[in-house]
Amino acid sequence: MRIGSRASTGFFALALSISLVGCDDGRTPLTIYSPHGRDLLGLVEETFEAANPQIDVRCLDMGSQEVYERVRSEAANPQCDVWFGGPATILGRGARDGLLQPYRPSWADHLPAASQHPEDLFFGLYRTPPLLVYNEDAVSAEDAPSDWDDLLDEKWRGKVLIRDPVASGTMRTIFGMVLARSVTETGDAESGFEWLRQLDVQTKEYVHNPALLHQKMVRQEGLVTMWELTDILFQRLRGSPLGYRFPASGSPVIDDSIGLVKGSRQPEAARAFIEWVGSREVLLMAAEKAFRLPARGDLPPEELPEWARQALADLVTAEVDWQLIEERGAEWMSTWDQSVRGRGAKD
Questions:
Q1: For 220-229, what is each residue's pLDDT tens digit?
Q2: In DSSP terms, which residues pair with 128 in a beta bridge?
Q3: pLDDT tens-digit map of 256-284
Q4: How many Cβ atoms sit within 10 Å of the Cβ of residue 122?
Q5: How far is Cα 252 from Cα 235, in angstroms, rounded to an integer?
Q6: Where are the beta strands (DSSP E) in 267-324?
Q7: Which of 90, 89, 74 is nearest to 31 (CA)?
Q8: Which structural domains are found in the chain, ordered by start?
Q9: How are beta strands 224-228 and 130-135 bridged, if at all?
Q10: Contact of 169 with 90, CB cutoff 8 Å
Q11: 278 DSSP assignment
Q12: CA distances from 261 to 29, 33, 122, 285, 312 (A)
């Protein structure tokens, strides 16, 4: 049973309370918090329940940062069993806060070392590349931005839409890449913040959620944006005129991870889900039906769908200091929110 879709925390709490009281059919309730959206969550819910009819999967769909904040706020009385999705940098903060408990699924042995938490608290499940997006009805492929710096071109002033970075793991990853690179190259984050100030000048609006971002892009309220491959492929499948390009200098590929919540009320069912969702068969199903790139390294490219093979051929993976982003990302976003957001156009 899937509950809600990126609504307010208060609504989620009410919906969860109602579901626990009103939907007791004898099955074991498994509560999952996830930013993965209705397409993937519906697929895994239906398929997992079919294979495990004694379990009632209850998915709550919210932004990556919202998942972290909710799990943290509930730490004294956990309501969630599985933290399903979000950048490893955010789950890393959850691990430092003591929000996750160890569980090493069998498929973890097929992951690169960088996708495995050293204490088995979370593991990479999918690879999610951020990219540049444009409205094909208004912008030709030749004129579309081909790298991150192209967004600062004067021709895009007032035509850039951006998903609100405070709540978005994808945008936090892109901004984190910019700021971490600044630290690496200059010793501090100031040149990165200057880049973000210039981007703020270009930005028409910071959009509240992905659905609004897609709608506004289709209506040409903005012509270019930054977002992630999976969502854009789903939008194209539904007929949206959203084109995309992989940035020439590289994408900060997100290690989209999963972990067992500390204090889970249903740890056995949670471990079964984590084991199942990272299996070879389920990863290939997610690639075929939900546009997810597997993080496992043992799946031959020829077994993947055409879109995935093409993405792997076109993708340039950026070098990113993930540890620095994990350590300083919250501080950087607070600084951006207080001193950059909405100020560039006034200068």
A1: 999 999 999 9
A2: 254
A3: 999 999 999 999 999 999 999 999 999 99
A4: 26
A5: 22
A6: 293-294
A7: 74
A8: 2-128+254-300 (3.40.190.10), 130-252+317-346 (3.40.190.10)
A9: antiparallel
A10: yes
A11: T
A12: 15, 10, 10, 25, 32
